[in-house]
Amino acid sequence: MEKITGNLQKESIQYMEFAKNVGKIVSIQGIIHRIREMTDFAFVILRTSRDVVQCIYSPKFSNYQLDEKVQEGCSVTVTGLVVQDQTREGRYELQIHNIAILSQPAEPLPLVINKKQIDNIALDLYLNMRSVVLRNPKERAVFKLQEGIARGFREYLLKQNFTEIRTPKIVFAGAEGGANIFKLDYFGKQVFLAQSPQFYKQMMIPIYERVFEIAPVFRAEHHDTSRHLNEYISMDLEMGFINSFYDIMEIETGALKYIFELLNHEYKNELELLNVQMPNIESIPTIKFMDAKDIIIHKFKKKITDFKDFDPEEEQLLGKWAKKEFDSDFLFVTHYPSEKRPFYAMDDQNNPAYTCSFDLLFRGIEITTGGQRIHDYHSQVAKMQARGMQVAEFESYLMLHKYGVPPHGGLGLGLERITMHLLGFKNVRYASLFPRDLHRVTP
Length: 443
Ligand code: AMO
Hints:
This protein starts with 24 loop residues before the first strand and ends in a 20-residue tail after the last helix. It is of the alpha+beta class. 28% of the residues lie in helices and 26% in strands. The structure holds aspartyl-adenosine-5'-monophosphate.
């Protein structure tokens, strides 16, 4: 009887192990990315999980004969001698002794993916071909970096004693208000897709004190914009025993510093491929909502009609201002008007028309909303009643307040939004692996 011990043994090695195997015969597995025939030899470029490895075929190296069965797109095991690359310092290559074909494509690829970058194609076609396009090393680097961002968020918060939670996405009520909620028939009963884990992360405060979640959330966005998706990944945190919502901004700044450091250390290759301009994040300036409006009016001479929120142009202007005044790619805007914030937001005691809340702008676009929540049961019920909400429907959420919760607050950071602005994309769809929008549910 065979027994499984949990030790996966692979005969093939990874490219990063080449350095310590110079002069040795090794095997490596990958997909043939490109074949370049020269007069008396050929480059067989192998795409592995994170590298592009140069293998060289020459009849001088062994008895192995390269034949036409070896094509681009074949999954192979290449065996050969590891040598230093003579033309590129610090790189290694493989002199081929054998290629074993593990799988062959049925058809050639419909797009050229083995050049430095994918030819400019319309967004729609690009997304239809997503799984093909991502075979290009520069394209796939986007989502490797996105892994780094989410990983940094998780690692930092675990170090700060946060507990990772997973909350339901089929829910009894919307947390964020507005019309952008998906309704669902649940065995004859109407339920919703979660717009955020808001209620649940708050409900965990008396239990774990500090919690976070990285998970999909759903917004039925009725407009086609370059920065809204119908399903996106929300990086949420919630934290108890805060002195004020400034504690939340401290945690977010710490998390962002950690994330960018992690990317600089462990995602160098991807940062280079994508030519990423890393942001400056020593400290982040803050400005109150109404003072920000003042700057827009007086410094940028813009006429303002809406004093409850910013339009995208106003956010852009604030981004420019923060860059010029503080050399900062980030800006916290605090004290948003109560009217525009959800019912769980705590109002500012000194001026109840405004909330103890903030947004974080990154290069002039909102990537985070956060703030302090109401913790007192009676104040929460009163605010809900004032907004005409059916308090009884929120009974399970209100147990939080009824049975006691410390002062707390938190935030939601859109993973695709931060990726988009870090990489300078004009459309958030480029920062979503398989985006869902008004017109798209495939692939
Ligand atoms: P909010 O609704 O502002 O706040 O969302 C938080 C962050 O999520 C991102 N985001 C989106 N990204 C892509 N497509 C969308 N349609 C979309 N909508 C929002 C943005 C935004 O800043 N519960 C609160 C957070 C909190 O206070 O803890 C909330 O969800 O980056």
